[in-house]
Every structure is written in structure tokens, then in C-alpha cells.
Design a protein that fits this description.
globular; about 30% helix; about 270 residues; single chain; Rossmann fold; seven-stranded mixed beta sheet
Length: about 270
Amino acid sequence: MRVFVISDIEGVAGIVTWGQATGGDSTLFQEARLLYTEEINAAVRGAKAAGATEIVVMDCHGAGGDYDFNSLVPDRLDPDCEFVVQSEWTEYTTFLEDGCDGALFIGMHAKAGAETGVLSHTVSGQAWQDLRFNGVSVGETGINAALCGHWGTPVVLVTGDRAVCEEGRALLGDGLTVVDVKEGLGRFSARMKTPQRARELIEDGARRALADLSAVAPYEPGRPCEIAIDFSSPDRLREYANRKGVEVTGSRSLVVRGDDWWSAWSGFFF
């Protein structure tokens, strides 16, 4: 069984501030990297217990600078996995293209505007206000699920705060296994499980989720696919306005279309 572990940092137990999620040499961020890596390790252990023979970890946290998609601590990773460092988010697809049995999403956060989503945002902490795939509002869980789903890989586990777990089930169905490691009290506060307890729950959740790969269908936003984005202000739109296939539909909004999700997304995002 080949398992893809896709991870982000904001949904990890113990993390509630941008200082913990922003790349650099601060003590806060370096401590957060360790918390992050150990939750990934918990998922790897669960995958191994479920019979995984190949496990690839992909860090999807854009921390900034040289830590972009490179925030985990390699020397602390479980030796029974391999890991990917990509230069652009969603650019690595080889493992999916070669055939992958299931995906585990670790440390996810809720989409922009989620009332009790800890560090909630979509793609950008400030610029993206709403993202829709064929009219369905999604966050980064939806983006990563669409990436996996394009190559037929189901997402069977989502971990993070309670808000993103609810978001994941609303999008992917009740068959999705979820592990909430904290409950948001606001965007920058939460009641959290201890890191050790969170890791135990994630390990168990990964094992259970991979025991039934048919519980969740691969996510397909629809064909053809229209991606619509609303930005927080007109200047934030300008970065994307002249990219391939983009139609500006308002002072703060655009759409891009394709025969399928991947052609629409990859046509303008990179």
C-alpha cells in the first residue's frame, strides 16, 4: 500500500500564533517545527501499522523564505518514510501519477473566514477571501483533495482543529476519518489536546482510516471545472490578473476554467 502524507503546520496541537508558523530562527518557530514533525511521524506510524509499504511525506506549509514547503525537521522524521521538498505548492505530482492508494492530511487549518478556525486562511493569510470550485467554497483541504483526486487517490484522514475536521467531512463525506487536536476559541486561541495525546490519536486515526480505502471517494470538483477567487482588495488581484486563462470578473474577483480541475488550476497558479 502506497500512502501520501500531506501536511501543514497551522493545525498542529500547540500552535495558535503566526509567530509559530512563520519561517525564521525564532524559538517559537523552531519549537513549532518539532511539534509539526512529530505529528507527521504519528501518521507514518499509523500508516505502517495499517500495512503501508511506501510512505511519502509532502510538506505544504509556506512558512516563508527558505522554509517554504521545508518546515519539518528531517533528522526527526521516521526513517520508514521519504519526504519531498517542492519549490511551488501543488507542483509535485509524481507519486500520485505513479499510483497512490490513500492520502492522509495532517495539521490542516480551516478556510478563510471560518469563525473558530485557528489561523484560518486560504492560500494567503490576507489576500484570498474566498475560493470556489464549480461554485463550492473550499479551503486548502479542498485544494489538496482535488490534487489527489485528479489522479484517483482518496483522502481518508484529516487532522487539525475542529473547524477543519467539520469542513473536511462536509466536502468529502461522513466516511472521512477526522482527528481534532484542538478546538478553536477564535482565530488565535484554542483549547488543545497535549502533543503526546494528539500524536496517539493521529496514529490511531491513520491506522483506522487506511483500513478501509473505499470509505471516501476520490474528490472530483467536476468536469469542466471553474475556479473562482474573491480577493480582499483590488491590489491583491493584480498578481493573478494577467496569468494564463484568467478572466477578471470584478474589482476583486476572477475566474479560470478548464476541462478538469488540474488544467484549470495549473494553468494559472504556477
